[in-house]
Amino acid sequence: MFIAIISDIHDNLWKLNTALSQLSDCDALICCGDLCSPFVIDELANGFKRHTHIVFGNNDADLFRITVKTRQYSHLHLHGEFCELEFHNRRFAVNHFDYIAKPIAHSGRYDVVCFGHNHQFEISDIKGTLAINPGSIMGAQFGRDGRKYVPSTFVIYDTAENHAQGYRIDSDSGEVLRVVPDVA
Fold this sequence. Notes:
It is a single chain. The mean pLDDT is 94. The chain has a single domain, classed as Purple Acid Phosphatase, chain A, domain 2. It is built from four helices and 14 strands. The strands form three sheets. It has a seven-stranded mixed beta sheet with strand order 4-3-2-1-12-13-14, with helices on one face. By secondary structure, it is an alpha/beta fold. The protein is globular. The chain has helices at 13-22, 39-47, 63-70, 98-106, and strands at residues 2-6, 28-31, 52-54, 76-78, 82-87, 90-95, 112-114, 122-126, 129-133, 140-143, 146-149, 152-158, 163-169, 176-178. α1 (13-22) runs parallel beside α2.
């Protein structure tokens, strides 16, 4: 089973649509928050027709309208700020925040912990738990030094192999490329 993992869309529909076009063979999609506007729900629902699991991030401002829009699509599942999922006997935890997700990964309770928030692509092993930050679909990072470009990235996780592979969207060509090195 292949699970697509995305985060931090921040209304960038162009990069989202590029990512979704590459994920059509995946069995499910996890979104780790920061969709931002309610109209992103329509893009997710129409761009990926299989079960999609969404948690809120800190920039999902209109929670009411995001919730109402999600109810219009039977394959979208809005879980609030945290969810536990299971795919082919792999236990997942999903939360937006890296500083919450990493202690969850340290607990050893899950096989995979997915998160976002800091817009930093990461696939790491924390005490036998795969910690996955797919990076940001948006393609920018914000901090004390201002805004800077980072690649738009996402991850596909293979439950059978317990393997996560990252991908980035080339900012010039729009081509989707593997992130090397991959981590298993």
